[in-house]
Write a structure and sequence with these properties.
Strand order of the largest sheet: 1-2
Shape: globular
Oligomer: single chain
Largest sheet: 2 strands, parallel
Structural class: mainly alpha
Distance between the termini: 44 Å
Number of helices: 15
Helix content: 55-70%
Length: 303
């Protein structure tokens, strides 16, 4: 998105243009840090084989792995790096690890931005926010995500049926093609694993991804749940104040109202943007644990 096209009612146009400057160096540093954490957690899994703490190591590795979703998110916006080829290639790798093809996700996500909290048109609201404790647990366990991802990508790959309203007819062939490329890759990994009698893909990818997904669900649930169903981005999206470690792992995505208000501002400038935006009328939370505790109290009270 061109920064000149951004709304200027909250901030001067020149300020927005400066904040919207992308950087290969900043993106590279963030990606290198995330990959370093992934390598470290992978080494911990390797060192934990045969020990009681292997499950803990797999969980930690899975959390770091699943939060590559945040890298995918930034690259889909093409704001993580200044070089478009870097954005697109990193988006492909992260999307493949999460069974979330980047072109499909870009169409889904841009529809979410265009129609945020619109009950009829926001694709994220296709699954209603949890209204009961059971729905909350089902949402955060991650099984709903994996079921949808397997069903959707296999439908696209095997039948070429693209029924999602947010996918234009001109993009349907692209969505089908990327799903097929993805599944050819998965089958090749499976075949190679069987040929080599190797469980590496299970140990370092699939099992950790399943274990780590609930933590990503907990993180994402706080972005819009309980926010207003209207067009005001500072009211329909929540910013969650958290610690530096979470900000690092999530590519600054807790500054989510800022991101929705000005989506071309890259992740590394969101903290600055947060300081410049007015406090009045904003939806914020003092932390993820506090927010989930409050939500659980509401769900219990509603029984």
């Amino acid at each position: 998105m061109d920064p000149d096209a951004l709304p200027t009612s909250l901030l001067p146009r020149a300020t927005l243009r400066n904040l919207s400057q992308r950087s290969d160096a900043r993106g590279g540093l963030q990606l290198t840090t995330h990959l370093g954490l992934l390598a470290a957690s992978g080494c911990l899994v390797w060192a934990s084989r045969g020990h009681a703490w292997l499950v803990a190591a797999l969980l930690l590795h899975g959390i770091v792995l699943c939060f590559l979703f945040c890298a995918l998110h930034e690259c889909v916006h093409r704001s993580a790096f200044d070089t478009q080829a870097l954005n697109d290639s990193i988006a492909w790798v992260c999307g493949a690890l999460l069974i979330l093809p980047p072109n499909y996700f870009r169409l889904f996500h841009f529809a979410h931005h265009r129609y945020t909290q619109d009950r009829a048109r926001d694709p994220e609201l296709a699954t209603a926010p949890p209204a009961t404790l059971g729905a909350y647990l089902w949402r955060i366990c991650g099984l709903l995500y994996w079921r949808e991802r397997l069903q959707t990508t296999l439908r696209h790959a095997l039948t070429a049926r693209v029924t999602e309203s947010f996918v234009p007819a001109a993009q349907a062939a692209v969505v089908v093609r990327e799903a097929r490329v993805l599944w050819i890759g998965y089958l090749a990994i499976a075949a190679l694993s069987l040929y080599l009698h190797s469980a590496a893909a299970l140990i370092y990818w699939l099992v950790p991804a399943i274990l780590g997904q609930p933590f990503l669900r907990l993180f994402l649930l706080a972005e819009h749940t309980g926010c207003a169903f209207d067009e005001d981005m500072l009211a329909n999206t929540r910013t969650t104040h958290t610690n530096p470690a979470v900000l690092l792992l999530t590519w600054r995505m807790p500054y989510h109202a800022e991101h929705h208000s000005f989506p071309s501002v890259p992740f590394h400038a969101l903290a600055t943007l947060n300081a410049l935006l007015p406090a009045a009328g904003r939806v914020t939370s003092g932390g993820y644990v506090a927010w989930h505790r409050a939500l659980l109290r509401q769900l219990r009270a509603a029984r």
